[in-house]
Design a protein that fits this description.
- With about 160 residues, the chain is of the alpha/beta class.
- The chain folds into two domains: about 70 residues, Helix Hairpins, CATH 1.10.287; about 60 residues, Chitinase A, domain 3 (Roll), CATH 3.10.50.
- It contains three helices and seven strands, in the order βααββββαββ.
- The chain has a five-stranded mixed β-sheet. It has a two-stranded parallel sheet with strand order 1-2.
- About 15% of the residues are buried.
């Protein structure tokens, strides 16, 4: 058996303007701030002499590889993404970028914003458009009953509110 694993699918190539701004800020931070700092520390460590036993040099080179890898990823991903900034023609239905408040069968309310897979952050209430919950919500109107297939079984949720920023 080989060790080859096919790459994961990149997910839907949509992003909100806020998400794009965060990714561009991360790119700028890595390329214009962190990389020059690490490069400077590596050159200082290299000037000390024997590189084979120089932990600062080895660690710095590893950090440079990680930064370069992330910069390559961000560059390719930002080129492929489509920024969705306009509101949908029907604001009474759930589409990309919407803040959706749902209520489960127990009466517990949850509020989520539908974003691209690169912006996913459950602590902030940002869920991916590729998630099962979002797939079930897309295109549904206010007060709709939505059935979602979850790992624990089928759940029923109600759309309480839809807002577009």
């Amino acid at each position: 058996m080989s060790r080859y694993r096919p790459p994961r699918p990149a997910g839907t190539a949509l992003i909100t303007p806020e998400g794009e701004a965060r990714m561009r800020a991360e790119f700028h931070e890595l390329w214009h701030v962190r990389r020059p700092q690490v490069t400077q520390s590596v050159s200082e460590a290299a000037a000390q002499g024997d590189r084979s036993e120089n932990a600062e040099y080895t660690y710095g080179k590893k950090m440079l590889r990680e930064i370069d890898s992330r910069v390559r990823f961000l560059t390719k991903r930002l080129e492929a993404l489509k920024v969705v900034s306009e509101k949908p023609s029907d604001p009474n239905k759930v589409y990309f970028g919407a803040w959706v408040t749902i209520e489960d069968e127990d009466g517990k309310e949850s509020r989520y914003r539908i974003v691209g897979p690169d912006e996913l952050d459950l602590k902030l209430g940002l869920i991916s458009i590729d998630s099962p919950l979002t797939r079930a919500l897309i295109g549904k109107a206010l007060d709709a009953e939505v059935r979602v297939q979850t790992p624990t079984g089928e759940q029923c949720v109600y759309i309480v509110a839809i807002e577009y920023p």
